[in-house]
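A reminder from the course coordinator: this example appears on the midterm review sheet, so study it carefully.

Given structure:
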């Protein structure tokens, strides 16, 4: 055998080993990441149930999990977030009154704001939520008219609002306002 063939065999072997190690590390990292999300959601769910809350919904974010929840008699709503890497968490709750057409709670996380909205009055007619303020208006599709069924809760993710007067509106299929409320914490 010539030196060239031996050298090519060794280099080819090293390339195959390097590829196998790379694939192994990539797979291990993804498995650990999935376990991080799974463990974080278990921890968040434990926190919620330990305090006699129940979760309306969970949302996997880029590096965290967010939950929108309520107590049994629906008089308090809340948002909680847990970082999947560090396990750090934060939450906010709000006392609500039963006569409101919708309830909301706001959780700030740096430059991001989450607004959890629970629709109490005619949720089947609500198609959009609209966030208004400071020459800004943004619509969020809550219930697609093409689909059967409807959601009673929705979490808006937006950049932190500037100071000023903000409102939240529920809209029908034609984007006509059903209900409106000033958005205050």
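Designed residues:
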């Amino acid at each position: 055998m010539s030196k060239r063939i031996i050298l090519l065999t060794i280099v080819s072997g090293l390339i195959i080993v390097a590829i196998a190690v790379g694939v192994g590390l990539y797979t291990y990292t993804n498995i650990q990441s999935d376990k991080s999300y799974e463990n974080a959601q278990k921890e968040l769910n434990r926190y919620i149930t330990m305090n006699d809350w129940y979760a309306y919904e969970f949302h996997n974010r880029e590096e965290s999990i967010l939950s929108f929840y309520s107590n049994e008699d629906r008089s308090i709503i809340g948002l909680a977030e847990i970082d999947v890497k560090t396990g750090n968490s934060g939450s906010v709750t709000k006392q609500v009154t039963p006569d409101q057409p919708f309830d909301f709670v706001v959780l700030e996380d740096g430059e991001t704001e989450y607004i959890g909205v629970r629709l109490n009055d005619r949720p089947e007619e609500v198609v959009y939520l609209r966030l208004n303020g400071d020459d800004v208006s943004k619509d969020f599709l809550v219930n697609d008219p093409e689909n059967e069924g409807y959601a009673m809760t929705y979490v808006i993710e937006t950049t932190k609002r500037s100071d000023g007067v903000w409102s939240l509106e529920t809209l029908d299929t034609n984007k006509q306002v059903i209900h409106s409320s000033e958005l205050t914490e």
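The radius of gyration is 24 Å. The first strand starts at residue 53 and ends at 60.
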